[in-house]
Amino acid sequence: MRVDRFSDARAFLKRAGPWLLEAEAEYNLILGLADRSKTTRSDEPPIYLAVVEHEGAIRGCAFRTPPWKVGITRMPPDAVWALVEDVASTYETIPGVLGPEAETTLFASRWCELRGTTAKPNVRQGIHQLTRVIPPTHPPAGALRLATRHDLGIALEWGSGFVRDTGVDNHDFRKGIEEKIHTRTLWFWDDGRPRSMAARGSRTPNGSRIGWVFTPPEWRGRGYASACVAAVSQGVLDEGLRFCFLYTDLANPTSNGIYRRIGYEKVCEVVDFRFDPNG
């Protein structure tokens, strides 16, 4: 097994893009991050992009945007071992690893052996794909509208709620929310006032990820989230893209049911482990 690291996202996508596109929904995160990294500012930490090869064939890929977790694709066990060694030669510590269960579990075990640390399972997520929106049967009052800079306060409050409810690692969510407002990719379902929120994430060649879905507890159960996500998803398709993707916490049957009813279908599952920084 040979691990090739790429400092240039374009070169990485030229080599690994066709392989990743064979499972575009499953690998939407690495495809989107690599595409975005083609225009990364010089003051941002360099992204880690790696391809594991054997006899000229790709066996798997990995990525990391510091300070976040390492993300890995499906790959055989010996490729995981080679990848851990390469990550260890690049980073003294990492906060965790995300990917398919078998590969992620093996990576976590080997990393803990190398670093003398411990790993704790975090969240089991489903990756879902939509190709056609099914409009809500009983849509709520209100309409979709873009968030503006005047909405920053409520967007930050709801962003904090999203991080708390989902358990995802996002230490600097303020930066993410501000960027969404600036790039006009954050929406509210507004019924006299904002009731629910959703955003568009990074793009793949044929799709876009939906995220930051949050409804305050007092407004849940009224169809606002369904209407918001359905409308944002339809906007993606109306632009000519073929897919929308989103991640769900599989332990939350309510949100999974909402997305299924508007047309999202589960493609695969991923898990992540957190590493104890204190060993």
What does this protein structure show overall?
The structure is a single chain. Helix 1 packs antiparallel against helix 2 (28-37), helix 3 (77-90) crosses helix 4 and helix 5 (152-166) packs across helix 6. This protein has helices at 9-21, 28-37, 77-90, 101-115, 152-166, 173-182, 224-238, 253-261, and strands at residues 2-6, 48-54, 57-64, 70-72, 96-99, 119-130, 143-146, 186-190, 194-203, 207-214, 243-249, 265-275. The chain folds into 2 domains: 2-125, 3-Layer(aba) Sandwich (Aminopeptidase), CATH 3.40.630; 133-262, 3-Layer(aba) Sandwich (Aminopeptidase). The longest helix has 15 residues, at 101-115. The chain is 36% helix and 30% strand. The chain is globular and about 55 Å long. With 279 residues, it is of the alpha+beta class.
Gist of the model:
This protein has helices at residues 9-21, 28-37, 77-90, 101-115, 152-166, 173-182, 224-238, 253-261; strands at 2-6, 48-54, 57-64, 70-72, 96-99, 119-130, 143-146, 186-190, 194-203, 207-214, 243-249, 265-275.
Low-confidence stretches: none
- Per CATH, the superfamily of the largest domain is Gcn5-related N-acetyltransferase (GNAT)
Beta-sheet strand percentage? 25-35%
Distance between the termini: 29 Å
In DSSP terms (H or I, runs of 4 or more residues), the helix count works out at 8
Q: Report the average pLDDT across residues.
A: 93
Residues in helices, as a percent range: 25-40%
* Quaternary structure: single chain
In CATH, what is the class of the largest domain?
Alpha Beta
> Looking across the biggest beta sheet, what order are the strands in?
1-2-3-4-5-12-6-11-10-9-8-7
| Assigned CATH architecture of the largest domain | 3-Layer(aba) Sandwich
How would you describe the shape? globular
Report the structural category. Answer: alpha+beta
Give the SSE order as H and E letters. EHHEEEHEHEEHHEEEHEHE
Largest sheet, in brief, is: 12 strands, mixed
CATH topology of the largest domain: Aminopeptidase
